[in-house]
Amino acid sequence: MTVSIVIPVRPFAEGKTRLSPAMSPEQRAQFGESMFRHVFACAQAVGDTYVVTRCPAILALSARTIAETAYGLNPALEQAAAELDREKPILTISADLPLLAADDLRAMLALLDDVDVVAAPDRTHTGTNALLFRQPRLMPYVFGGASLEKHRSAALARGLHFTTCCREGLATDMDRPADLRFLRKAGAPWSRNRKGSTL
Ligand SMILES: Nc1nc2c(ncn2[C@@H]2O[C@H](COP(=O)(O)OP(=O)(O)OP(=O)(O)O)[C@@H](O)[C@H]2O)c(=O)[nH]1
Ligand SMILES: O=C(O)[C@H](O)COP(=O)(O)O
């Protein structure tokens, strides 16, 4: 099955603010870029991968890009969905998933045999780290806060079949210093492979 994959990215120098207690601004930007490059490589192994961002430097890194004109995560994703192939499933994934593997994305896609919408929860089962629709614009993006329940409710309200995909590579986003401690313990392959890692 072919799939459009969308990675939304906030400019590296602006993002990951909740890691401020543990990292300098330079370290956060470097960490954000390293994670993005990792997620991008995983996505490219699985589908046609698009990056939606307002950052010119990130736009220059990628072949398929969507310049964000609708400022903010949900508007940027709606903008991307409006521009992509209406016949293909659309998978959006956060750029801060250092333990992600291509097989995690394939596992999400396999679930589309039975449902319309697949959400990958974070480790606390409150946020959404990846979201797959059978077709673009089946329902709105409602990221922010406890978005897992918001996505579930939005799907059910439209009569769509919804399920979750719970895997460590999808669940381990890097929001807070506690997530960095979890990543250090999880370790390989992320920290082994990165010279000059800020971890
Ligand atoms: N295109 C785009 N992507 C965004 C925007 N805000 C967040 N993202 C991306 O959405 C995903 C999830 O974002 P968060 O985990 O909240 O990341 P963040 O905003 O960098 O982190 P905090 O500053 O700590 O809230 C990441 O891939 C971010 O880069 C935005 O305004 N535009
Ligand atoms: O679920 C969400 O809205 C996204 O994952 C962003 O939320 P978080 O970064 O606070 O988990």
From TrEMBL:
Signal peptide: none annotated. It catalyses: (2R)-3-phosphoglycerate + GTP + H(+) = 3-[(R)-glyceryl]-diphospho-5'-guanosine + diphosphate. This is 3-phospho-D-glycerate guanylyltransferase. It holds the Pfam family CofC. GO terms for biological process: F420-0 metabolic process. Keywords: GTP-binding, Nucleotide-binding, Nucleotidyltransferase, Transferase. It is an enzyme of class 2 (transferase). Guanylyltransferase that catalyzes the activation of (2R)-3-phosphoglycerate (3PG) as 3-[(R)-glyceryl]-diphospho-5'-guanosine, via the condensation of 3PG with GTP. It is involved in the biosynthesis of a derivative of the hydride carrier cofactor coenzyme F420, 3PG-F420. Pathway: Cofactor biosynthesis; coenzyme F420 biosynthesis. It comes from the Bacteria. Belongs to the CofC family. Its EC number is 2.7.7.106. InterPro entries: CofC, Nucleotide-diphossugar_trans. HAMAP family: CofC. GO terms for molecular function: GTP binding; phospholactate guanylyltransferase activity.
